[in-house]
Fold these 4 entries.
Entry 1:
Amino acid sequence: MEAGLIHAYLLDGRGGGGDLSWGEVLSWQPQQGLLWLHFDYSEAAVQHWLREESGLEPLVVEALLTEETRPRTTAIGDGLLLALRGVNLNPESSPEDMVSIRLWVEENRIVSTRRRRLLSVSDLRERLQAGRGPDSAAALVVALTDLLVWRMSDTVEALEDKADELEGRVLSASSAAMRSELAQLRKQTITLRRYLSPEREALARMLVEKVTWFDDQSRIQLREVSDRLLRHIEDIDAVRERAAVTQEELLSRNSEQLNNRMYVLSVVAAIFLPLGFLTGLLGVNVGGIPGAEYPSAFLIFSGLLVLAVILQIVVFRWKKWL
């Protein structure tokens, strides 16, 4: 079965190993070493092999083939069923659109499945090819989780840099553009937080599961990975809170600008209201309008209007409305 097989790797127990053909996989025996099979579960041939020929329990097979999954750790017998996620660093993809990997881990065999490419798996494969990789199933699990968390660092730092940039631009940038960027930043942090929290729970669960092949040294290393993941989660929470504060500051600034404009309009309306009343009163087409026959009446009336404006401004300043 070549379709759907991404790689079949036999670890030599010294940090290296070599690729196996599918025929060699079928003849593999546990005493030969740790076998790592990595599949694309969307291929029909992979689904058939897992269900009919892999010898795995139906529960494990369905977990390896499920389309949507939450990060988790489940012990079944002396094996671990894992579902983990990493940031999507594939070209033209959003980091928060996380890529999942499912693993069934036994002492002498690891079966992992994915649909989209995960760079952390490629990193681990390169380490093995260079002879600097894990030497056991427990070490491979720890190395993979470490790479998944390490790959998140650049994404978290990019979010922090974006938050810094938006905080610096809040007093000068366009409100519409800022609102859009802040909303996008908050969406990214919320999505990442949604997946990273259960991932940390999965790592914590892995630490307490009693499987014979998971040694104490691996637990110590995994605890360090879990702590680093917790720091990423705290950084993401900080970015989300900073984005919320920046958004509130932007709304406050917009509200202040609107209030200032309304204040100016109110002052103008207050000044011209009595003037409009007087001009409207003298503009009615009925007899008896004062000054209708007097040539200088318009200039006198205009002077009275100017005097009224000056008097209003004096009163506004005395009341501290200006």
Note: The helical segments are 22-26, 44-52, 58-65, 119-129, 137-169, 175-208, 216-282, 297-318.
Entry 2:
Amino acid sequence: MRLLALCLVFFATCLNAGDLPHAVKVMSFNIRFGTAKDGANAWEKRRYLVAETLQLSAPDIFGLQESIDFQTEWLAEQLPEYQYVGTSREVEPGAGEGVPVFFRKSRFELIEAGDFWLSETPEERGSMGWDAACPRIVTWARLKDRQRDGSELLFVSTHFDHKGKLAKENSAKLLRSRLDEWMAEHQRVIVVGDFNCTPDSQPYQTLLGVSGDSPLVDSFRSANPKVTTELSTLTRWSGEYLGRRIDWVLNGSGFSAMSSVIDRTQDAGRYPSDHYPVTAVLRYAE
């Protein structure tokens, strides 16, 4: 493997949940949309690095953001051990970015999957909400874990708007409402995404609460309680380390975080995306 993995905790990065009973390794990864005019960082020049980052980390389940159909399909070819679900956020399927969910076929069985839009009309395909700059979508998959005698979990991937303040706040309210419904049905929930917000923002407080009043937990903060400086999940193609942590892995009370890291995999100064992936190993709560 030609990659150099730079991580906070080597053990946490290399840990495969498949080697542990009753744990699952998950990832959130904004791979940067493949039609961007990124010059030396264009998709064709870094796509193998994206695939190798995923292969190196070997998550059991992962959610992508900014993945256009041709990127999703190419990664599916490189990672045949995974199955994926998801659709474009636009009116026409395949016409734009999506937030697909990939899961390891040998471990999980798909029960059902779906999508909804972060808007006033969430079931309307391609609908754009509030002051958002573009349509935003949520993709979810309900999975049966063969490794745990058929236990079920709900895995959610999303991407909040990058401009609209009201859109971010209302997206958090809508997502929290859906999550509350799912968790009221005793669903074990994991949420990943690029939220375009930092942990001091109102959307973060809406999702996670301000005084322990939410069943959702930020796995990174839970697993790294001594981290006081905000670490960046944006590479900006240069390996930025401190800054804005806007990519999160959240878990419901059905899980507890064993470890969580910002994966700083690179190859001689080239990064797979303008975002770092975030991984977490989550233990099932009894």
Note: The longest helix spans residues 165-184.
Entry 3:
Amino acid sequence: MKISYIIPTNTIDKEYTFIAFDENQKNNRLTIENNTQKLIMGIEKRSEMTRRKLFILARKVIATAKQHKIKKLVIPFSEFDFSKLKIQPQDLSELLTTNFEMANFEFNQYKTKPEEGWDLIEEIIFLGPKNIKIQKGIERGQIIAKEINGCRISSNTPGKDMTPSVLADSAKDAAKGFGIKIKILEAEDMEKLGMGGILGVSQGSIEKPKFIILEYRGKASGKPIVFIGKGVTFDSGGINIKPSDGMSDMHMDMSGGAAVIHTLCAIAKLKMKKNVIGIIPAVENMPSGTSMRPGDILKTMSGKTIEVLNTDAEGRIILADALTYSERYEPKLVVDVATLTGAAIVALGQRATALFTKDENLVQVFKRAGEEVGEYVWPMPLWDEYEEDIKGTFGDVANISKTRYGGAITGAMFLYQFAKNFPWVHLDIAPRMTAIEGEYLAKGAIGTPVRLLIKIAEKI
């Protein structure tokens, strides 16, 4: 979609539809004024607008225009002047652009294109007085949105077409030409490193595991931030196979890995003066005669052993090796991102990512960043007492708790056993894996938490 900012003129073609907001009407209506089509959208009182509501409003503009088969929009930038919010013009244009592009996205790669084409917006023009910063905000927003939507494509792609090898190749393609160094460790390399967690989870599949490493060096020195993304390209549950109604979305269990890949690409394209590493352990968790079994004990890269009590709690096992590997970078912060537990959805619903860390300062940084970009996080406890719940009987740690309660917490506590040597945050993005009603986003993956990680890289 083309988005631009221009000074108002009288030469805008009639094929464009003007957008205006009216707080005195509830419904939307199309009108013709002076041979120009207008879409007037009802909104709440301007004085009651919040940043959270603004994210939704931006997407609603696109959704409404698509419903009316509109292809080209003109919007006076002043329509988004909600003085109470005090958002700088560049930040506002970035916010609007990102959400416009997110709302315009449709995953249609596997559909036959209709004769009339897809119902997508082709162009948006903002009107307003000359302001270079607004155009810069648009450019930043489009870079960020492209990577969010790239993440959504990867996550939505069916498991047969998004294997660990394909994910590794897609990471190479996405990162090419932007100053990102990429390295792929094969199963033999992982054996030499002692990554028994990754090898154990992957041993039931004919698809070989991959350990994807992306390195972006935006400055000559300084400790890097490390982002780790869970890359289970299909999760059948293994021997503890999932029920049939819980498996159809499990090609999205690599959403954390896709988010990390596209976050690194966005950071590189934005030319951030930061050093950032991306790590994605990529596996397929399948049942077969060679699968890991309940009761197996795996030795991880750290030397700690994992007692496998449930083969469907596999994501934490591969992340254990990735967390240990990240130590070699002497990171100033490690953030792992994973669709880890259904328990996080039970706890929070589908409107916030579960946040775990021992550092209260990081809690506040992440909460503020989430509010700024529209990817909300909520802290959950990581108290030492929970360690008792994941102690193994025959191994050092068990991959599920002794109790069926607090699964998101015990999953995070498991990861913490491998993250005690550096500042660390765990994001359980299972609640935000797919879009829900009222968000004005296409069904399927939503690219969480690319926006949040970019903002964290800027702040840390």
Note: The radius of gyration is 23 Å.
Entry 4:
Amino acid sequence: MDAGRVGAQGGRMMLASSTPMHAGSRASSSSATCLWIGRYVPYPINEGMKLYSAKLVESVARSGIFVRALGFGDLGHAPAIKGVQWIAVPGERGRDLSGIVNRLPLAAAVDATPEYKDLLDRQLREHWDVIVFDSYASGWALDRCRRYRTAQNTQALLVHVSHNHETAVWRSMAQHSNASPVHRWLMRRNAIKVAQLERDLATNVDLVTTITDEDANALSTTSNAAPTLTLMPGYDGPIAAPRMIAHRTPRRVVIVGSFNWVVKRENLTRFVQHADPIFARHDIELLVAGEMPEELRTSLEAKCRASTFRGFVSDLAPLLAESRIAIVPELIGGGFKLKFLDYFFGRVPVATVSAAAAGIPAALREQLLMGEDIAALTQTIVDHIDDLDALNRRQATVFEQAATLFRWEDRGAQLHSELDALRAKRWDTEDHRLLGS
């Protein structure tokens, strides 16, 4: 048996290699099969990218497609989901320096290790109906999968699951970063590589999925780009009991997130540096909860009077219940901010910059407190912090609307349906070609 082939043993799927894997049940012979090329084994889920990847994989599997998903990480936290098989890439990611001398952008360069390439080559000895490139960073595998499709004479559909319009994100970072000149030069260089890889994916796959319609429109402007499908996130996390914001509720605003990614760090730093002295003058407390580099926390704490930094919080419910407003201050970076959903279902009014509200349905967007920039956002919070009746109306209205809009099970069904339509269209085209019409 070839390494990488799968066989049944004692009711579990066993990979004939030393590659760590989390075994899920294999699809029936009549079911479609999907190879999912990702960055992470996304458990435990501790950031937005992992959340979106994990839940979309699970939803696709529940729609009836068997998914074998690859990524770096530990399988110990991966749940047993019928129709999902997680395989951990052996070894570790490459060093960041590899991205400087590589034609690939940094995120793709550090993922494209010899071990990952070998693992993928073994998977491509099998038949797949669908191959997914999860995020632009998985684009390093594009040429390999295109060669597989040609060599095997297979009709496998190639799908790029995007998380942002990365070209715009990196262009904005390079333009607005306060980093050193050397780091800004590296960002500009990486932005060029990101744009090229994102363009390669958009023009060489059969379908691009996006999180927002805005991203879909941006990615569609590339000449010969593949069709797009918007798959807005779902939500299956904790749901707060009905609450009322009262005078006894602390005059506290909260930001929750993971701040290890450079874009998240930049957005947080900009907002805190501007808003902290204004909040201090108005007796408003800013609480920031989430993982961040220690040097960032130390630097911010040294300059702040109104802000406190709590680190990772496993249970957000008590924190949200004791806050009047939750903030999404992400001026840099496109895409849907998954943190909105924690706030919506935590029954907290949300304040944000207009650019961060991309992908939010219009009716929901009307209920957000918004400013065009950080200064306007800060002033909006100051103006509304004590308008308790309006805050309660906003959080109640948003919760009612969100409960019907954000369902993960719908996303897998949407993607499955779109793949079926693409496959039927391809067969119809092939029939006409064979008939000479």
Note: The longest strand covers residues 33-40.
